[in-house]
Amino acid sequence: MARYIHYTDPNSEDMMRDLEEIPRCPGICFFMDINRSTDIKYQGGLKDWGRKLNNTFNNLLYANHFQKHVVKGIGDEVMLFIPDEVLQKKTSNNTCFALLEDIYAALFLIKNHPDQDLYLNCKVAIHYCTEVHNITFFEGADDYYGSDIDLTARLMTKCVENRIVLSEKFYIKVVNDLINMGLPMETGCLARVSERFMENFRGVPVSTAYRVIDVQ
Amino acid sequence: MEINEIKTDQCVIIGITGRLDTTNYSVLEKKIMELIDNNSTKILVECSKMDYISSSGLRILLMGLKKITLMKGKFALCGLQENISEIFEISGFTSIFDIHASTEDALKVF
Fold first, then answer.
1. Residue B103 lies in a domain
2. Which domain holds residue B63?
3. CB contact under 8 A, A115 and B95
4. Tens digit of pLDDT for each residue in A121-157?
5. CA distance A145 to chain B (A)
6. Burial of B2 (0-12, 13-18, 19+ CB in 10 A)
7. How far apart are CA A202 and CA B6, in angstroms?
8. B69 in contact with A, Cβ within 8 Å
9. Closest to A113 (Cβ–Cβ): which among B54, B87, B92?
10. Does B62 contact chain A (CB < 8 Å)?
11. Residue B46 forms part of a structural domain
């Protein structure tokens, strides 16, 4: 559970000490968004978008696997954060590679489902975070803050329908998983990974390397 | 996960035991592709001992169905456990796959 930060004195020295001592909480952050869901709200009303959102979120099995780690939603965009220690304890989806494979598969199933009226296509951005803290400024809430969370949100700007954007940091974790498992670099959806791109994201002082995988 | 293969007069039965997930879906993919390459276009996947399936596993079954359908063959499933049936239902797979309660029932349609 997140460390609750709440001091009534704006200049509290205790607050400064408290903030200094908060440990980092490394893990995987991903944002996922559902395409066209805003349009559908205007066109089809609650019944239509509610049905499609229900079906789509149900079909994202990887997200349901980590449903306690859905941190926040804004509109139809959802942020999940999976701390390393949680990932390692899972029997499935317990490596960055496994998680990426299941995200790809979930997007593939939606894109290739014969009945295109049931689901909405998705897009996902993933980053491996080290600059992140499990803190909240609202009592009882669980939340994560840090420059790496902001960067994950920035990666979403490079995302389009049926695309996974992965930061180079996450990609390196996936590659290390493959090495540990003795699998070739082209295993699964990595056969479709792009070359490395660089981008200067707003508010981020250094260039960010990322790759994309377009779902076939 | 373990896979076994039984050839019958009607079709090839692939039995899956254990968890079908990201760590092993490629084994099933390879097996299905081998059968297709050898012109086996009637495949029954027996799932009564399969206790977990991830999206990666579902993807391979969908790919198998699509390839076999294009070859005008038959691809069916049988013996799904309750938790697996639920995943098939929420994935919208119950309407696109030919699913049977038991191997005996399934063999009648081949």
1. no
2. 2-96
3. yes
4. 999 999 999 999 999 999 999 999 999 999 999 999 9
5. 30
6. exposed
7. 59
8. no
9. B92
10. yes
11. yes
Domain locations along chain A:
24-214
Domain assignment present for B9: yes
A205 SS3 class: coil
Q: Which residues of A touch B87 (CB under 8 A)?
A: 61
Rounded Cα distance, A61 and A73, in Å: 17
CATH number at B20 reads: 3.30.750.24
Number of folded domains that form chain B: 1
Q: Check CB contact under 8 Å for B58 and A105.
A: yes
Q: Which residue of B has its CA nearest to A63?
A: B55
The pLDDT > 70 percentage for chain B reads 100
pLDDT at A70: 85
Give, in order, the Cα–Cα distances in Å from B15 to each of A87, B34, B76.
Answer: 30, 15, 12
Chain B, nearest residue to A114 by Cα:
B96
Q: Which of A87, A104, A210 is nearest to A152 (CA)?
A: A210
Query: Which class would CATH give A24-214?
Result: alpha beta
The pLDDT tens digits for A40-70 are 888 888 888 889 988 998 888 777 778 888 8
Q: Is B70 on the interface with A (CB under 8 A)?
A: no
| pTM, two decimal places | 0.91
Question: What confidence score (pLDDT) does residue A112 get?
Answer: 93
Q: How far is CA B21 from the centre of its chain?
A: 14
* Structure confidence at residue A64 (pLDDT): 77
> Which pLDDT value is given to residue A149?
96
Query: Which residues of chain B lie closer than 8 angstroms to A103, CB-CB?
Result: 55
Contacts B92 to A, Cβ<8 Å:
55, 59, 113, 115, 118-119
Distance CA A187, CA A171 (A): 13
- What integer is the mean pLDDT of A10-22? 94
* Residue B70 falls inside a structural domain: yes
Contact assignment for B59 to A105 by CB distance below 8 Å: yes
